[in-house]
Design a protein that fits this description.
The protein has two domains: about 1-80, Glutaredoxin (3-Layer(aba) Sandwich); about 85-195, Glutathione S-transferase Yfyf (Class Pi), Chain A, domain 2, CATH 1.20.1050. It is about 55% helix and about 5% strand. It is built from eight helices and four strands, in the order E-H-E-E-E-H-H-H-H-H-H-H. The chain has helices spanning about 10-20, 65-80, 85-115, 125-145, 145-150, 155-170, 180-190, 195, and strands at about 1-5, 30, 55, 65. The protein is globular, with a radius of gyration of 17 Å. It starts with a strand and ends in a 6-residue tail after the last helix. GO terms for molecular function: transferase activity.
Length: about 200
């Protein structure tokens, strides 16, 4: 298998952590394919029509794309149990969706600051994205801490990647002061070997 990736993509990081946690890292060739919405990665042409990472090229089937699809495939392939069972499965999937919403909002903030011409930036729109992140953190603090502290699952991995990306790109903003329990959980989770191994390089 070949994973088309960017070392700073939080969606790629989710996949990399699943590879680490399920013992499949050695079975995947990593192919750098960095790009932006304005300059798509040429290496992905013909692999993913959306030209986004991650994309997982398989030897026995079509290329998979979208981190949620790839993570579910890798977990099923390894029998990792990261998606739970019974009603708990829906909690894991809901947490993953919430975390990916945080990533979407944080990435849009990043693009607004880096790609949009300064005279065309919309501060109110950027703040609306941050408000989504704040509401998500409040929900994680009030509703999801017991789940986050339980058996490792895809929800925990996704939330950790999302919060770490917010720190990586938007360190000047403070999500932690309003969510001390989530802050403590995240600091502990970041000490996992898979999190340490997948930290994005400094820029």
């Amino acid at each position: 298998m070949r994973l088309y990736f960017s070392p700073t993509s939080p969606y790629v990081r989710k996949v990399m952590i699943v590879l680490h946690e399920t013992g499949q890292l050695g079975e995947v060739e990593l192919v750098t394919a960095s790009g932006t919405p304005l300059a798509p990665a040429e290496a992905l042409l013909g692999k993913n029509p959306l030209t986004k990472v991650p994309a997982l090229e398989r030897d026995d089937g079509p290329t998979l794309f979208d981190s949620r699809v790839i993570c579910a495939y890798l977990d099923a392939r390894a029998g990792g149990g990261l998606y739970g069972s019974g009603d708990g499965r829906w909690d894991s999937l809901t947490l993953e969706a919430l975390a990916d919403g945080v990533l979407d909002a944080a990435l849009l903030m990043t693009y607004e600051g880096r790609l949009r011409p300064e005279d065309k930036r919309w501060d109110s729109w950027t703040e609306a994205q941050w408000d989504k992140i704040g509401r998500a953190c409040a929900a994680l603090e009030s509703r999801w801490l017991s789940h986050l502290s339980g058996r490792l699952d895809i929800g925990q991995i996704a939330v950790a990647c999302a919060l770490s990306y917010v720190d990586f790109r938007h360190a000047a903003r403070d999500w932690r002061s309003a969510a001390p329990g989530l802050d403590a959980w995240h600091r502990e989770f970041e000490s996992r070997a898979a999190m340490i191994a997948t930290r994005p390089p400094p820029e």
